[in-house]
Amino acid sequence: MENKNKIVLVTGGSRGLGKDMALKLAEKGIDVILTYNSKADDAEQVVSQIQQSGRKAATLQLNTGDIKSFGAFIKKLKGVLADTFGTDHLDFLINNAGFGHHSPIDQTTEEAFDDLMNVHFKGVYFLIQNVLPILNDGGGIINISSGLTRFSMPGASAYASMKGAVEVFTRYLAKELGAKGIRANVVAPGAIATDFGGGRVRDDAQVNQMVSSITALGRPGEAEDIGGVVAFLCTDDAKWINGQRIEVSGGMLV
Fold first, then answer.
1. What is the CATH number of the domain that holds 180?
2. I need a labelling partner for 152 at 20 to 30 A (CA). Which of 12, 33, 51, 101 fits?
3. Mutual orientation of helices 40-52 and 16-27 as an angle, nearest 10°?
4. What is the DSSP letter of 132?
5. Considering the domain boundaries, does residue 147 fall inside one?
6. In 3D, which of 218, 220, 237 has the Cα closest to residue 228?
7. Structural domain includes residue 30
8. Does residue 159 fall inside a structural domain?
9. Which residue(s) pair with 31 in the sheet?
C-alpha cells in the first residue's frame, strides 16, 4: 500500500517525555501511534490532542518488558495501521518507554536488575526485531538513553548500564539497516523535571538544586526540551544523521 503520510510508533507516549514527543511529531505533520502500559485515559487524551491538530493518531497497550507479548502486539498494530491509517507499514519507531531506578550497587536486587533489563534493553532489542518487517525503507529508529551513560551518579548503575547497552546496539542498527536507508540514533536526555523516577528531579529541592548547579544553562530540563529534538530526527532535515548519540541536557557536567 502507498503511504502518503509518515507514521511513527512512540512507546510510553501517554505522559512525560513520550507525550511531548508525540505532540511535537504531530506538529511536524507525522501521524502517531503511541503505546501506554497502564494509563489508558492519559493516552487517549494525547490521541485527542493530536487529532484536534489535524493529524491521525491511535493508541495501543504494551508492556515493553513482556517480550513474549510482542507477537500479539504486532498483530494489533497491523490492525490499527490498516483500520486507522490505511497502510501496512510504519516509518519511525521511538523507543521511549521506561522507568527510573535508584539504588546503590550493594542494594540492587536481581529482580530490580531484571526488570530494568527487560524494559530498557531486552525489550528495546526485540521490539525493534518485531517491528522491522513493517518498517519502511528510508525510515528511522530513535532510542532514548540518558546522560547517565556519559557521567556517573551513584545509585544509577543498573539503569545506566542498560542505557549504555542500548547506545552500542543503536550503532549496530545503523550499520545493519543502512542498506535499507533506515537511520538509527540515540537521544540522551539529562535530568528532566517530570514524574519519572518518582519525580526526584522535579520534587526534591536538593536534587533540583544539584542538577541546576552542574548544568551550564542553570536549570533541570523540562519534557518540552526533548520532544522537538526527537521530532527533528524524523524529518528530512536530519536525513544524514545516523549512528549518533545526541545529548539533550542543557550542558550537564560539560
1. 3.40.50.720
2. 12
3. 20
4. G
5. yes
6. 237
7. yes
8. yes
9. 7
The reported pTM is 0.96
For residue range 226-250, list pLDDT tens digits in order. Answer: 999 999 999 999 999 999 999 999 9
pLDDT tens across 75-93, in order? Answer: 999 999 999 999 999 999 9
Q: How far apart are CA 74 and CA 158, in angstroms?
A: 29
Instruction: Enumerate the active-site residues.
Output: 159
Structural domains in the chain (count): 1
Q: Residue 57 falls within a domain, yes or no?
A: yes
Counting residues of the chain whose pLDDT is more than 90, the rounded percentage is 93
Continuous segment of H or E residues that includes residue 140: strand 135-144
Retrieve residue 82's grid coordinates: 490498516
pLDDT in the model for residue 205:
87
User: 169 with 186: CB under 8 angstroms?
Assistant: no
8 Å CB contact between 188 and 149: yes
* DSSP per position, 66-125: -GGGHHHHHHHHHHHHHHHHS-S-EEEEEE---------GGG--HHHHHHHHIIIIIHHH
Domain that holds residue 177: 7-189+226-247
> What does the pLDDT look like over 39-49, one tens digit per residue?
999 999 999 99
The phi, psi pair for 100, rounded to 5°, reads: -90, 160
Q: CA-CA distance, 152 to 80, in Å (whole number)? A: 41
Q: Which of 12, 2, 40, 250 is nearest to 142 (CA)?
A: 12
Report pLDDT digits (tens) over 158-212: 999 999 999 999 999 999 999 999 999 999 999 998 777 887 888 888 989 999 9
How far apart, in whole angstroms, are the C-alpha atoms of residue 60 and residue 248?
A: 28
Distance CA 112, CA 90 (A): 33
